[in-house]
Amino acid sequence: MMSNIFSLCLSFSLLFYVAQGATVTFTNNCQYTVWPGTLTGDQNPQLSTTGFELAPGGTNSVNIPSPWSGRFWARTGCSNNGGFTCDTGDCASGQVECNGAGAIPPATLVEITVAPNGGQDFYDVSNVDGFNVPVSITPQGGSGECKTSSCPNNINDVNVCPSELQVKGSDGNVIACNSACVAFNEDQYCCRGDYDTEETCPPTNYSQIFEEQCPDAYSYAYDDKSSTFTCFNGPDYAIIFCP
Ligand SMILES: *[C@@H]1O[C@H](CO)[C@@H](O)[C@H](O)[C@H]1NC(C)=O
Questions:
Q1: Is the peptide bond before 67 cis (omega within 30 degrees of 0)?
Q2: Quick check: 15 pLDDT over 50?
Q3: Ligand 1: does its nearest atom lie under 6 Å from the Cβ of 205?
Q4: Peptide bond connecting 106 to the previous residue in cis, omega within 30 degrees of 0
Q5: Is 198:222 a contact under the CB 8 Å cutoff?
Q6: Within 10 Å of residue 124's Cβ, how many Cβ atoms?
Q7: Ligand 1 within 6 A of 203 CB?
Q8: pLDDT over threshold 70, residue 104
Q9: Does the pLDDT of residue 40 top 70, yes or no?
Q10: Would the pLDDT of 11 be above 90?
Q11: What pairs with residue 122 in β-bridges?
């Protein structure tokens, strides 16, 4: 009898847990391996994985609780020579797991804020910290707008990323593109100081390059997309690298 009651309680709590969470499924459509990183914002505990390897064609799913807020990104050119390091998106943990450390810019970021109890989720793709890998996020299920947010183009192309923003690998190829804020650290590009509101921080000639390539992604901090990507009723999410 005790054990029946116990398993009943366990079943209910499992049901509750499934109903409250979301599953994020990562797919790597790039022709190269990526090492996704996960970072839970604020004081929350980190997810069950904070970093893993994803070969070309590979998929992996991670559960996120509700409510939750955090970000995902891809690392590239990783190797383990007396410590795990990556050419782009490195989190400097020295391991495949990032353990609460975020991406060192430049990196394309996927940001999600999951509402409690099936409320309004927010999600986006951001080039505010620059670009390294094309990525998209699409809610699965849910209700409302639930549009795909995507940065599908390769901004690393030498004809796209201005030379003053380029990050080059040891072979001389462009492996990432800095945002102007990351490259120059000036208030007008970082929307700080006299430029710290949407009105006083207009797009710049640099943010426009990101906007042209990836109009669905944030090109700079006050890019006017704050209410564009929303979904209700607890969708799952599909994140695709090189969509
Ligand atoms: C952007 O504008 C700045 C300041 O006017 C200029 O120095 C720079 O060359 C421009 N860059 C591009 C890529 O247009």
A1: yes
A2: no
A3: yes
A4: yes
A5: yes
A6: 23
A7: no
A8: yes
A9: yes
A10: no
A11: 113, 230
**Residue with CA at minimum distance from ligand 1 atom 14:** 205
Gap from CA of 2 to ligand 1 centroid (Å): 73
Q: Which two tokens stand for residue 175?
A: 């492996």
Q: Is the CB of 162 under 6 A from ligand 1?
A: yes
Query: Exposed, middle or buried: residue 151 (CB in 10 Å: 0-12, 13-18, 19+)?
Result: buried
Mean pLDDT for the chain overall: 92
The alpha-helical segments, DSSP class H, found in the chain are 2-20, 180-184, 187-190, 205-213
CATH topology of domain 16-241: Thaumatin (2.60.110)
Give domain limits for the chain. 16-241
What does the pLDDT look like over 120-167, one tens digit per residue?
999 999 999 999 999 999 999 999 999 999 999 999 999 999 999 999
Q: What is the identity of the amino acid at 172?
A: G
Residue 5 CA, distance from chain mean position: 42
Q: Is the pLDDT of residue 209 over 70?
A: yes
Smallest Cα–Cα separation from 168: which of 64, 87, 48, 97?
87
Give the atom of ligand 1 at the shortest distance from the alpha carbon of 164.
13
Does residue 48 line the site of ligand 1, with CB under 6 A?
no
Rg of the chain on CA atoms, in Å = 19
Q: Among residues 201, 198, 194, which one has the least CA distance to residue 180?
A: 201
Query: Is residue 201 over pLDDT 50?
Result: yes
Residue 137: burial class (beta carbons within 10 Å; 0-12, 13-18, 19+): buried
DSSP letter, residue 104: P
User: Measured between alpha carbons, how far is 69 from 18 in angstroms, rounded to an integer?
Assistant: 18
Cβ of residue 163 lying under 6 Å from some atom of ligand 1: no
